[in-house]
Specification:
10 helices, 264 residues, Rossmann fold, 8 strands, 42% helix, binds S-adenosylmethionine, elongated, single chain, disordered N terminus, alpha/beta, eight-stranded mixed beta sheet
Length: 264
């Protein structure tokens, strides 16, 4: 599908298809993120910004029939897909439309709370963090994961032009610096046992990288936004295509996951 709105980013343009591709390619980090949350049988869990609900369903398997998992997402389309995908589940799963910055749940309602790749979309990440904290019970754990768009690299020349394009790409995200800021956000709300880990995701197929990082939209946008000239972007894309055909393309981005405990 050719995007019509240059302001759109990858998951907004391709929706569930995009989320499914990421999960298929990088499922290992998702499994590790679930372990990082320390979920147990019988727990009440919140997946904030749950998308199509696949992670919430995985959590429901761990929480079991005496637990409960709530998936929350601002998008009614995502909630509809999440409900549809969970229709055959016998486990206690609940999907609700709502905003992570104003969660319609009681204080201390959950034993475990997580958000995966949501903070990059937020204009008020501090407010979201306070809300995640509020709905977590004392003794409960919170895990938030996100990439930092400043860590996106593409092996292409000229390097100065590549950095100009990637710099513009960073600004297309509401909170492109989400990844680096998570640790500080956790510290800022007084959580204890704060741990941070990072992971770099490598892609050596140019078409896949442009799809995953949303660079295809950016490459179309840069001329209108006066970031690059038509001739610069045409030769940049031709250079990347040649590298790809030679099997020599590389791109990567780093994500961060932070875990902490709520003490009081
Ligand atoms: C990149 S997707 C990630 C979805 C899911 N966590 C996953 O890992 O597959 C980002 C999700 O955050 C949701 N989202 C964005 N802003 C939100 C907000 N303010 N409150 C709740 N969900 C939000 C989007 O609708 C989307 O489903």
């Amino acid at each position: 599908m050719v995007p019509t709105d240059g302001a759109q980013i990858a998951y907004e343009r391709d929706g569930v298809n995009y989320l499914d591709r990421v999960a298929a390619l990088f499922g290992a980090y998702k499994r590790r993120s679930v372990e990082f949350l320390k979920p147990f049988d019988g727990m009440h869990l919140l997946d904030a910004g749950c998308g199509a609900g696949d992670d919430a369903r995985a959590l429901a398997e761990l929480a079991g029939p005496t637990g409960k998992v709530t998936g929350l997402d601002v998008s009614s389309e995502m909630i509809a897909v999440a409900k549809q995908r969970a229709r055959n589940s016998v486990l206690p799963l609940n999907f609700i439309q709502g905003d992570i910055c104003h969660i319609n749940e009681d204080d201390a309602a959950f034993d475990r709370v997580r958000a995966d790749r949501v903070f990059q979309h937020l204009h008020e990440p501090e407010q979201a963090m306070r809300e995640l904290c509020r709905v977590t019970r004392p003794g409960g754990w919170i895990v938030v994961m996100d990439v930092d768009w400043s860590t996106l690299l593409v092996d292409a020349k000229p390097v100065e032009l590549t950095q100009r394009i990637l710099g513009y790409h960073f600004t297309r995200h509401a909170n492109g610096a989400a990844g680096r800021s998570l640790y500080g956000l956790f510290k800022g709300v007084g959580l204890s046992d704060v741990e941070v880990v990072s992971e770099t995701f490598l892609v050596t197929d140019a078409g896949l990288a442009f799809f995953l990082w949303g660079l295809d939209v950016t490459a179309r946008d840069v001329v209108d936004r006066d970031v690059a000239t038509r001739s610069e972007i045409d030769s940049w894309m031709a250079h990347i295509k040649a590298r790809d055909q030679a099997g020599a393309f590389l791109s990567a981005i780093t994500g961060f996951a932070v875990r902490a405990k709520k003490t009081t």
